[in-house]
Amino acid sequence: MEKQKRVFMKPGKNNKEDRINFIEFWVDYVKAHSDEDWSEQQNILIDSVIGE
Question: Over the chain, what is the mean pLDDT?
Answer without folding.
Answer: 84
